[in-house]
Amino acid sequence: MDSDLWSKGVFPARYIERLASHGGIVAPPFDSDQVQPASLDLRLGDVAYRIRSSFLPGPEHTVADRIETLTLHELDLRHGAVLERNCVYLVPLQESLHLPDNVSAGANPKSSTGRLDVFTRVIGDRARGF
After folding, report:
1. Which end of the chain is more exposed for a tag (fewer CB within 10 A), N or C?
2. Is residue 46 in some structural domain?
3. Residue 35 — pLDDT band, cuts 50, 70, 90?
4. Which domain holds residue 62?
5. Cis peptide bond upstream of 29, omega within 30
6. What are phi and psi of 69, to 5 degrees?
7. Which helix (H) or strand (E) holds 19?
8. What's the CA gap between 30 and 22, in Å, rounded?
């Protein structure tokens, strides 16, 4: 992906859409309603993994490796689900990123998540930081 297409700073909606059209955001199917003025709404996948504890994958493991070793049980989210209080869940997103070297991304929960007293964070394989 041509790094000259991207300027510094927070991307406006048109840059986010361009990033998706160039394969930097993979979200089958990509829904243009996800694109906000300077952000992208992320969607939960079809399954939640109830895991023993929070973790960071580290340089020697992938998130999938950790799911395999830490999962207590799985929940099907396709028709809704009730999550237990004070439990840790890992929910893969429908979106994935393949960003150019000069582009980085951050993630923040929506304010409605905080009002529900849900703590969230995004983890990934080989991420430079969390």
Report:
1. C
2. yes
3. very high
4. 42-116
5. yes
6. -90, -20
7. helix 13-21
8. 12
> Could you tell me the CATH number of the domain that includes residue 110?
2.70.40.10
User: What amino acid occupies position 8?
Assistant: K
CA distance 68 to 31: 30
User: 61 lies in a domain?
Assistant: yes
> In this predicted model, what pLDDT tens digit does every residue of 75-106 receive, in sequence order?
999 999 999 989 999 999 999 999 888 888 88
- The pTM for the full model equals 0.82
Place of tokens 């990033």: 19
Q: Is 49 among the domain residues?
A: yes
3-state secondary structure of 25: strand
- Cα–Cα distance for residue pair 62/91, rounded to 1 Å: 15
β-bridge pairing 35-36 and 39-40:
antiparallel
* In-domain check, residue 83: yes
